[in-house]
């Protein structure tokens, strides 16, 4: 499962860069301190992916910490990216694959 998570994280980053949604400047500490889900009150969703999700998941993996048991990023991405002009299909695919890594049936 870990290799699938790493692959999905890598592809999410690759797609954010390809879509020119990767930021070279981090958000302010205040923006990152938001307690709202996905920092929706302080960050665009792509910045939440880049500066919150990707580093936190990498830290969990690197530290051998327990991983979440349920992840559901794709529904928020579908709402957040609905009005973007870029073709988001590949990014959505990888976000869905990331979510699927945590599904237990």
List keywords for this structure.
single chain; de novo design (two linked rop proteins); 105 residues; mainly alpha; globular
Q: What is this structure's SSE topology?
A:
Layout lengths: L1 H17 L10 H4 L12 H19 L10 H7 L8 H12 L5
Helix pairs in contact: 1-3, 1-5
InterPro entries: UCP006257, YqcC-like_dom, YqcC-like_sf
Protein name: YqcC family protein
The main β sheet shows up as: none
Quaternary state of this entry equals single chain
First-to-last CA distance: 14 Å
Q: Which CATH architecture?
A: Up-down Bundle
Protein name: YqcC family protein
InterPro entries: UCP006257, YqcC-like_dom, YqcC-like_sf
Domain YqcC-like: 5-100
Pfam families: DUF446 (PF04287)
Task: Explain how this protein is built.
This protein has 105 residues and is mainly α. The chain is 56% helix and 0% strand. It has a single domain, classed as YqcC-like (de novo design (two linked rop proteins)). It is built from five helices and no strands. The longest helix has 19 residues, at 45-63. The model has no long low-confidence stretch (mean pLDDT 95). This is YqcC family protein. InterPro entries: UCP006257 (IPR007384), YqcC-like_dom (IPR023376), YqcC-like_sf (IPR036814). Residues 5-100 form the YqcC-like domain.
Short description:
56% of the residues lie in helices and 0% in strands. The protein is an all-alpha fold and 105 residues long.
């Amino acid at each position: 499962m870990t290799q699938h998570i790493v692959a999905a994280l890598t592809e999410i980053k690759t797609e954010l860069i390809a879509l020119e949604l990767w930021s070279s400047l981090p958000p302010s500490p205040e923006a990152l301190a938001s307690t709202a889900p996905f920092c929706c009150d302080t960050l665009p969703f792509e910045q939440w992916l880049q500066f919150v999700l990707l580093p936190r998941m990498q830290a969990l993996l690197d530290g051998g910490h327990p991983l979440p048991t349920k992840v559901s990023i794709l529904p928020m991405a579908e709402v957040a990216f609905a009005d973007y002009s870029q073709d988001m299909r590949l990014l959505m695919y990888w976000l869905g694959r990331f979510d699927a890594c945590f599904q237990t049936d």
